[in-house]
Amino acid sequence: MRTRTVAGLLVPSLLLLASWAVQGRSSASGKPAREEPANAGKTTQIKVRVLEGIPSQFQARIEQQKRALSKVVPPSVGLAPRAMLNLTKRWTNGQTLKIAFKGGDANLHKRIADVVSEWTRYANLKFDFGVDPATGQYRRWTPTDAEFAAEIRVSFNQPGYFSLVARDSVDPQIARPGEASLNLEGFDKKLPSDWKGVALHEFGHAIGFEHEHQGPGSMCDFRFDDDPGYVAATDDFGQFVPDPAGRRPGLYTLLGGPPNNWPQAVVDHNLKDLPATSAYSGGAFDKLSIMKYFFEDYMFISGTASPCYTDSENVVISTLDKIGAARVYPRALDAIAADDQIRAKIFDVLSKAETLPATTKKHFNHLLDGLKH
Ligand SMILES: [Zn+2]
């Protein structure tokens, strides 16, 4: 997939399992890194990017878990089922999250650790990289682990970038101890120019943040339909391109063709089925969020005027990201107590729900016990 030189379109991957294709990032210079195909002159407006890095086993398990939990009636604390689902994923306030690596050397691990630890300045969480003071080596995990070596298990050898969202990383219904929960493809070979932004984005998922553009307040006016009268035209790669009159294919057409070949239902699922589970609960849509993808202007009905449009990729944690992280993981004791109270009610209901499998109930019972400590 990486041999393709087309670039341009980046769309969100599956709900809840966030993924960021390697090709999907632009350079740290702030301008999208583009390697134009030979026929770029004809297709400058629209170039479709390959979406990669979504391990299908996670997708299946997450969907299954979501369906099971959606059947449980939330406790009467004014929570929508989806808000409940999101709360079950969050780490505990003040929790220390262990992080382990597979592949890479201590120098790389340190660089990643130094960058992503910025999140813990805002969120009331701690990162423990398990550095051995004698050797300087960072904690490692292996595919043969029988128990979770760490909450966040980083690998570099899977396709693309992705991270499970918070507790999904250690939910036995979703992740196994021998599976990576976060992947940064190729970082162990060569760091891409925008690696800091990528690492911050993926660790944002790892602490519980969803995509900003998929939140309930998203202002992304995606242009799903073709321009009126569009006559299908393709380039040398078989990708849909504007017709001779300049009419553009919409996202259904674009993503329905190579290289993604998504049926309309998949496009809807990935772009329309917005979870009401934004990490920035109650916050305004933030187009500068590190958790928002870069979208080319042609993806929006209003083009560059779209409230979702930025002229370059977001590579740093935004001001609203910082506020959101502090809101989701507060430090004030009364805020923590209020948060714990809501979660205790949810865990109590889920640990007794008849419709859930025994292992899931046990998982939530364990979380409930953790709150009572
Ligand atoms: Zn993402």
Automatic annotation (TrEMBL):
Keywords: Signal. Residues 1-24 form the signal peptide. One of its GO terms (molecular function) is metallopeptidase activity. It comes from the Bacteria. InterPro entries: MetalloPept_cat_dom_sf. Gene3D superfamilies: Collagenase (Catalytic Domain) (3.40.390.10). This is Peptidase metallopeptidase domain-containing protein. It comes from Paludisphaera borealis.
